[in-house]
Every structure is written in C-alpha cells, then in structure tokens.
Amino acid sequence: MIPSTYWWYRTASHAAELTAGFYNPTNRDGYSPVFRMLKKHSVTLKLVCYGQEFTSQENDEAFADPEGLTWQVMNAAWDQGLSLCIESALPCPNGEMYSRILNAAKPRDDPDRHHASFFAYRQFPPFLLQRDTSFSELRSFVKCMHAEASQNGEG
After folding, report:
1. Closest C-alpha to 18, from 27, 1, 5
2. pLDDT per residue over 34-60, tens digit each?
3. Beta carbons of 2 and 56 less than 8 angstroms apart
C-alpha cells in the first residue's frame, strides 16, 4: 500500500514523502525503483486516495498537491507494469466524486489505455445504507469502471 503523503509535494524536498521513506525530491523519481522490485513479485499496488478533505487554501498552506502525487505514483506503477488498486478513504456521496475517481482510474486521454484494476472503499460508506441515496450514480459508476458505459454518463 502506498500512502498519499502529499503535504509539501510542491516543495523541492517533498519532505512528507521523505519522512515516509520515499526519496522523491523534485527531478528524481523515488517510486519507480520500489515498483520495479514489487513487479518482480507480481504485486498489485494499492494507492490510498483521500479526496478533498482540505480546502484549496489549506492545501496551499501545506504546499500539498494530492492530484500531482496521485498521477506520479499511478504513472510510475503503470510504467513498471504493476496492477493498480485505488482505495478511497472517504465516501463518495455524489456523482462529482465518482467522476473524479473515474478520471483517475481510467484516464480518457491515455494512449496506452492504462487503467486501475480495482477500486475499493476503505470502509463501507454509510450513505449506501440509506434508501434515499442516489443508486443511479453508483450504478453508473460501476458500469463505467467495468467499461459497460462511457464515462460521460451515456449507456
């Protein structure tokens, strides 16, 4: 499992990643060497994504870049030929969150057609137990993840 340590990602040292054991400063890929070793053992990489728990002002103050780190880790995993699982630590209560996950899990403009092999919730989202929740959005999300529908909601 690769944690999303994206605080200070927009600094030269990437101090939070360094503290977590990844030497990934600016202009050096600290993930590919680790992923090369994991590939030798047929590992499926699980990337935990935390979503938008912070405001943009809080991200600016922490020099955070969750999207930048996610893309770097995903691309390094795909470049090494690893299967990738995306785990959401936060529930996805609406279609906007599902769209963000789809855009990360199945990038539309990727010429190599990379995609995440799995998606998981860290814990069962309580909103799924509510009868008035929008199951149509969840159903559409699952169909898109399985390529039974397009990502723009058609099908």
Report:
1. 5
2. 999 999 999 999 988 765 555 667 778
3. no
